[in-house]
Amino acid sequence: MTTPPLIAAQYLVAGAFFGVSVLHAFVWLGQRRSITYLLFAATALTAGGNAIAESCVYQARTIEAVAPALKWYVTMSGFWAISLIWFIYGYTGLSRLG
Question: What Cα–Cα distance (Å) separates residue 76 from each residue in 11, 28, 35, 43, 51?
C-alpha cells in the first residue's frame, strides 16, 4: 500500500518543525538570557507533534482507531495553542491585554 501524499507531507512538515525546534533549543542553550528561543522551540515541537497526530487520524481505518488518534490530536493542538500564547507573550513582552 502506498502512502497518500497528504500523509507524507504531514511527516515532512513535522520533520521541519522538529529541526527548527532543535535549532532554537541550541540557540537558547548559548543565550540563556533570552527565553523567546526556548518558547519558540516548544511551539515548533508541539506543532510537529500536532502534524504527526493529525496524520495518525488520517491513517485510522476504524472508529476504534480514530478515537485515540483524535485524542492525541486534540491534546497536541491544546499544547500548541498554550505554547504559542506563551511565545507571543515572551516575544512581545506584553504584561496584559487591553
Answer: 15, 23, 22, 11, 9
Instruction: Look at residues 73, 41, 54, 42 and name the one whose alpha carbon lies nearest to residue 13.
Output: 54
The angle subtended at Cα 67 by Cα 4 and Cα 63, nearest 5°, is: 70
Q: What is the pTM of this model?
A: 0.87
Side chain identity, residue 1: M
- DSSP state string for 15-84: HHHHHHHHHHHHHHHH-TT-THHHHHHHHHHHHHHHHHHHHHHHH--SHHHHHHHHHHHHHHHHHHHHHH
Which pLDDT tens digit goes with each residue over 30-63?
998 889 999 999 999 999 999 999 999 999 899 9
What is the maximum alpha-carbon separation in the chain?
A: 53
Alpha-carbon distance of 82 to 3, in angstroms, equals 32
